Amino acid sequence: MLILGCDVGAITTKTVIFGDDGIVAYDITANNGNLTKVVEKSVDNVISKAGVSLDGIDVKAGTGMGERYIPFDHITEGIIKCLAVAAHRIHPHTRTIVDMGGLVTTAISINEKGKVLEYRTSDKCASGCGFFLRLAAQALEMKVEDFGKLILPYEESAHMGTQCAVFGESEIVSHINDGVEPEKIAAGINHSLGRSVTTMINRIGGIKDIVATGGVAKNKGVIRAIEETLGMEVITLSSIDEQLLGALGAALCAQQRVQQG
Amino acid sequence: MTAIEELKKLPSREKNPYIKEWKADGRKIVGFTCHYAPKEIFAAAGIFPYRLEARGTKETGLADVYYHRFNCTYSRCILQEGLSGGYDFLDGVCFLNGCEQIRRMYEVWQEAVPSTDYQYMVTVPHSIYDEGFEWYKEEIFRFKEDLMSNFSLRLNNSDLQLSIGVYNESKHLLKELYELRKADNPPISGTEAMKIIFAADIMPREKYNTLLKKSLKQIRSRDGIKDYKARIMIGGSPLDDTQLIEIIESLGGIVVTDTLCGGSRNFQEFVEVEQDGDPLAAIARCYYYSNPCPRMLGHFKSRLQYTEKIAKEANVDGIILQRVVFCDNHAVENTMLTDELEPKGIPVLNLEREHMLTDVGRMRTRIEAFIERISRR
Amino acid sequence: MIYVGCDVGSLSGEAVIIEDDAIVMHDIIRVRTRPEQTALEVTQKALAKAKMSFDDIDYCVSTGYGREKIPFAQSSISEISCHGRGAQWANPSVRTIIDIGGQDAKVIRVDKYGYMVDFVMNDKCAAGTGRFLEGMARVLGVELEDLAALSSGATSPVALTKTCTVLSQFEVLYMLNDGVDKINIAAGINRAMAERISKLAKRVGIREGVAITGGVAKNFAVVQSLIEVLGVEFVSLGDVDPQIVGALGAALFAKERWQKARQREATPAGGNKDTKNVCT
Amino acid sequence: MAEYSDRKDRTITTRWQITGDLAKFILTQDLTHLDDWGGKEAVREVLPEHYQKNFDLVQTDLVNCLLEEKNRKTAMGFAECMGNWGDWFHSQLDQGKKVIYHYFVHTIEPMLALDLAPLCLEVLSGLSAALYTDGCEEGIDTMHAEGYPDHLCSSNMGGAGFLLKGYVPQPDAFLKGTTPCDPSNRVYEYLAHKFNAPLIVVETPYYMNERALKFLTNEMKRMIGKLEKIAGKKIDEDKLRESIKLSNETGEYILKIQELRKLVPCPDTGWHRPADTIFTAQMGTPFSRDYFKGLYEVVKERADKGQGVIPEGKKEIRLAWGYTWECFDLPFFNWLENKHGAIYTEDCLTLFPADYAMIDTTNMETMIEGLAQRLMQVPMARQAMSWSDTWINDFVDVARAYKIDALAIGGHMACKHFWALNKLLTDKVKEKTGVPALRFEMDMMDKRFTSPSELKRIMDDFFATF
Fold first, then answer.
1. d(CA C72, CA D445)
2. In angstroms, rounded to a whole number, what is the distance separating the alpha carbons of residues B56 and D463?
3. CA of C71 vs chain A CAs: smallest distance (Å)
């Protein structure tokens, strides 16, 4: 059975095709303008990679902020459940998931069966999310990808105090003006992000294993910062791209439904 | 090190030498959260009252687990210190229902700061009148009883009289310091003065008085500061360090007075025990009827008068009313004061800030522009 | 005498050269990473166009976000004073200036001499600033300059409910995807902008003779909505580019300071007495 | 049908009168959804002309929600209470009665007994937010424009803004207890100063014990004394008794309904909670009594038949809200029931303690002490005036008594109290009862903060985890 899972997030759309022996193909496409077109593009990519046609797909499932823009019939799944199910499948010891997405960070505590016990989302503020990294990268004239490489101890990094993503930008500019090296500023941003994420993990009383997912999880600097403040190991999954868990979860949830009839 | 230097450089919390010294001879230190805490009683019983502050606190990660971004960073920074062990040296904390953000800390503290084994809540009415006074007086009395029994201490009226004497002297000395700042060419900058003032609530008072006396002598012998562009009064949310004042003065302003809790509001009234009067009642009266905090409902006019009086006495060119974001009391108070003072020709700058100063660039622009505005007058 | 005003903001840098009482030349560039770079380049360009060099400058005042970092400026003044001064010089009837910069929105009141008497500046939020429009343009996939034109002919402008500059970008993104007409969204954006600024303006109180400066002044749609929301007409700044008003003000202060310095040299005694009255 | 006034200072209250009559008119038509008659525009055309403008203001979804069978009856009660109250208030104004703006926790019996015209600032915000498409946003924005920040409470700001705009009568006095919070205290302080009107402060102590009751009883006496000065007469004991008998009766209904909500399936629908709070602010009037009486009868009837309010075949998910309801989208509660089978059993603003005072009307003394009792027990004041434990334990009890599946908590943005104790609350409830909690940010009256669609998205994600 082939299942398509599509996760339309804030800044990227992720699609996977899930077969009997795991992920057949996946695609990550950046959102710009028309989300329906983005979804179509992402789906086209993934089915061509998998060498199947859309009709060849048995079940289609969608999740994420922009789920309603998926143009074809599909089963709708809640993003929180998707993340839980997927994390549990890939890393059964997962008890805490911290998903660091483009606009929202979510900390989820699950039980040994992968059931969601409790979760908290990073409320209505863009600070401490992937979008903030983007703004920061722009201001520093760096690539977001390079941020992760910049790891410094908290004390040696530039201090980022502001709560607001936009003024975070202006704080960066004033650091630049004060002649602080971009590396230190970037490291400081990783720390401020990492610390706000740690707080969220603590809100649900982070039990290990703690698994980090979402685009920001690719930033090792942030992961280090979380581990530093949390005093615990944070696992990043090697067997799958961190951004895919929502999409995979959607496929898995749909599979369950179908099997239960 | 001169007395001035010693007061100015006095470190807070664990680095504060007096804490070690005090505890060394097995004496107790009890923290308190707001102006309405009866410090004289602590001191009379041989307890060192330490005003909770969050000087130099850079982040609120631990506090935000319990509190939220909609709580002000002043309360969150203090909680952060509690949660990160900054206040492990305290034998107890006296909370007050000053504002709900500080007041609600009581339960969190109880839950998450195990090092503090003694906690008490003194509640202050939200308006000033005789029945309210009776309530507060009883609160003070109950607190004293509880404090005594908890630390198995004894306290008689002469102890209280003594301690009242110490604190009254302190107030006289602080008044004198503020008098010196009123001069056309003040012998001391606002930054220095506020550092000295902040030291009062984080060290034993007798020692403080001796150092302050020495300092005043040194200060009096100085030449005044002439090259400033504007005399400024600062008011609003509680300040516990001088970062903001340093910015103001680095831009050519001089802070000559304030209406801050922990600043000028600290020494306006003296505790006066009438013949064979009850010292506890006298203490209660002094705190309760002192010029009101914005939390007090229905007393805006007296706060306005107080602001105008202080500003006039120090002949200020303008007033900077700052507030911590999400501080409801000062948010409304500052706006109301501005709407009253500006029409009377008293320039006011409203500033929003976080407790840990951030985004300094834009802050400087606003302050510099304000100084440019008022220094032409 | 040659006076230069140099304004380094968060998005762009401007330089104005005045000789006696006339603008000789000005230039505008987008900011470089460091303010001193921006200042140097923009001033050089302006000087070059005027066939001058740094040696010709008698006095230079810097202003704007990076004002304290400009090596070749003798002194610096906040952009708030400078905008007031510049606008009032451009049109003596000006008493209120609305300046919308990259991350600041300011409303400034001046006296008949161009000296600032009161001002407000946006506090904890960047809503209602150039950043807001920038982000929106990005989402709409148009150039910042084209945002104004886009909104013309809007039938029912959308209501933007989010204040946060970041969150409202996503609000707009979803509107687009729900098939809302770009024209109406653009109009809604300009409207929201105007309403946020009018909230500021009400705080200091508008006085007749309102001028609008800063980059956003070139967005006629925002300006139009502001006229509607505030119920005032804007006075013209003549041929002065609204984006250089800050730098112009700085240049005017440069002149004033140069002359004051001269007076002091003339009367060496009694330096300190009038410090309180010198606007430095 | 009552006279509608076109006076500017009656804009809001007249709006309520018309909406009340309009609702009665629509609810008596053979209509279960506006689309039956071709949608809102089409219905507008067949409406009597004097309703049309008002109809434009009313939220479409709300009309459709109230037209549903299970809601019609109580919707009628809602409309009548609102309309009658509006008529009565205007008649008070016409007789030149003095207008007292009061905070919603205050029992209004003494004001009624003094022939004053009480108007609750928070009801001004709440009813507008509940009924109309633009809610109380104009009021809120007016306050912002005056320089008052967005972290003050919209429930005060909306009404305050209407007052500044002159949409409601000029105040003769303000009445404010010092509970629950600083933001509300400050807004009343500002208004009293701005309108140069007396501010009657009722000092509410921190504790809930004999000492506090004694103190508060004395406060009640002081309050009545001050109100008497404004009314220019002594309080009429019989009038007070009459009014308190009404509020006793109302209180009994409220407690009975509360008991019934504990039943499985729950016989009461969620949108009543905001409505309840709004009309408890009128306890002591016949309108309020009639509303709760009507509500009781409907709920009782269902309970007797063992009926719930969720669609056939859906599994009932029982929620308690842990904090305030939202009132910018009443149909949201209906949506919870219809889509997710989730019922909204209780929240912080409708949770009356079982010992909520039935006031002994023997004499002045007993009545005044009773009023003091109530001020200590009335929702919000009860939770906010004292230790966090009061609030937390209340919801531990709720979780048990109402057999709650989950605490869903939309934390009201302005409420520093809640945000300071949110973790203690959710942790304790979970520890004691195993009930998990969802917590998110919203504003109870300003839909611009968390929009209805966001709210639904949040709930969808939440229920998906069940």
1. 54
2. 43
3. 13
In D180-263 the beta strands, taken as DSSP E runs, fall at: 199-202
**CATH number assigned to the domain covering C2-86+241-266:** 3.30.420.40
To 10 degrees, the CA torsion angle through A27, A30, A32, A37?
0
Q: What pTM value is reported for the model?
A: 0.92
Q: For A247, list phi and psi in degrees, rounded to 5.
A: -65, -45
Beta strands at C12-19 and C22-30: parallel, antiparallel or unpaired: antiparallel
Chain centroid, CA D274 distance in Å: 5
Chain D residues with beta carbon closer than 8 angstroms to that of B349 = none
With CA atoms as reference, the chain B residue closest to C113 would be B376
The angle subtended at Cα D320 by Cα D314 and Cα D321, nearest 5°, is 120
Q: What does the domain layout of chain C look like in residue ranges?
A: 2-86+241-266, 93-230
Residues 178-237 of chain D with CB under 8 A from chain B are: 178, 181-183, 185-190, 192-193, 199, 201, 203, 205-207, 215, 218-219, 222
Mean pLDDT by 10 residues, chain D (466 residues): 85 96 94 94 94 96 96 96 94 96 94 97 96 95 88 96 97 95 96 97 94 96 97 96 96 96 96 94 94 97 96 94 93 97 94 88 96 92 90 95 95 93 95 94 91 91 92
Residue B230 Cα, gap to closest chain A Cα (Å):
26
Contacts with A, D 372-431, CB within 8 Å: 423, 430
The verdict on a CB contact (< 8 Å) between C202 and D150 is no
- The residue ranges of DSSP E strands in chain B, in sequence order, are 29-32, 48-51, 92-96, 118-122, 230-236, 253-258, 318-324, 348-353
Q: Rounded to whole angstroms, how far apart are CA atoms D215 and D197?
A: 26
Q: How far apart, in whole angstroms, are the C-alpha atoms of residue B113 and residue B136?
A: 27
Residue A124: its pLDDT value, please?
65
Q: Fold identical between C2-86+241-266 and C93-230?
A: yes
Domains within chain A, CATH numbers bracketed? 1-91+238-261 (3.30.420.40), 93-236 (3.30.420.40)
Position D400, amino acid: R
Rounded to 10 deg, the angle between the B130-150 and B279-289 helix axes is 120
- Chains contacting chain D through 3 or more C-beta pairs under 8 A: A, B, C
* Contact: A165, C66; criterion CB under 8 Å: no
- Is D229 within 8 Å of chain C by CB? no
Using left for φ > 0, alpha for ψ between -120 and 50, and beta otherwise, residue B298 falls in left
> Which chain D residue is nearest to residue A118, measuring alpha carbons?
D436
Print pLDDT tens along chain C (280 aa).
899 999 998 778 999 999 988 999 999 998 887 888 999 999 999 999 999 999 999 999 999 988 988 999 999 999 999 999 999 999 999 999 998 877 788 999 998 888 888 898 876 566 677 878 888 888 888 888 888 888 888 888 888 877 677 778 888 888 888 888 889 999 998 888 888 888 888 888 888 899 998 878 888 888 888 888 888 889 999 989 988 999 999 999 999 999 988 887 776 554 443 333 333 3
Give contacts of B361 with chain A, Cβ < 8 Å: 170, 173-174, 177
User: Which candidate from B228, B350, B368 shows the least CB-CB separation from C78?
Assistant: B368
The ipTM value here is 0.90
Q: Does A177 sit within 8 Å of C103, measured CB to CB?
A: no
Selected from 3.40.50.1580, 3.30.420.40, 1.10.443.10, 3.40.50.2000, the CATH number assigned to the domain covering C93-230 reads 3.30.420.40
Whether residue A166 lies within 8 A of chain C, CB to CB, comes out as yes
8 A C-beta contact, residue A122 and residue A196: yes
Size of interface A-D (CB pairs under 8 A): 33
| Angle, helix B205-220 to helix B157-181, in steps of 10 degrees | 20
